[in-house]
Amino acid sequence: MSRRSGILEFAVLGLLRESPMHGYELRKRLNTSLGVFRAFSYGSLYPCLKTLVANGWLTEEPGNSTEDALAAPLAGRRAKIVYRLTASGKEHFEELLAQTGPDAYEDETFAARFAFFGQTSRDVRMRVLEGRRSRLEERLEKMRTSLARTRERLDDYTLELQRHGMESVEREVRWLNELIESERAGRDQRRTGAAPDRQDDTQATGGRPGHRGDSSRPDPSDGTAT
Fold first, then answer.
1. Within a 10 A sphere around the Cβ of 109, how many other Cβ atoms?
2. Of 52, 75, 106, 108, which is most buried by a Cβ count within 10 Å?
3. Alpha helices in the chain (DSSP H)
């Protein structure tokens, strides 16, 4: 399985854990809620769904709404199929959520993992955030070294592009630092028994721990931020 296919399967399982959906609803959620999947089409989604059904992680059920029941015979097509997560699928998704290996720090993978932080334990969130930060700090150091070595040979526009790339990575590192600080603050409050001044449950904040807003904070699904 390619990394891209694995990310799609992970996201589909995560969305269906929230509620059963039609294929069209899934595609819409992938495109609107998880920006990293903008490029995915029905051509990649439906084979993915078929694979998940074959693995026993999803079931297919006929749509049971009045609209579906009436529209199918009139249009000469089958009723919409509703995809539902099985108990085995839920268990598999929870196993994927718990993984914190190097793949979790890559650009597209991290964006998908971050989108489901609301369903992820604090310890796992911390490991993924710290791993991502370490990966970006390594990238930033290589970029600085390369720029210092080639600066004299670059024209103004190429130099500006290099600087822009470095600033994007630096901005994401600062953003990760804020997230890690927020996670640690919540963990320390639990240990000391102090009343938390931030929400420990990230569900209420869309999977993101409460911290001060910053319009310049990068979107993890935006390739320019990484």
1. 22
2. 52
3. 3-18, 23-32, 42-54, 66-75, 87-97, 107-115, 122-150, 156-192
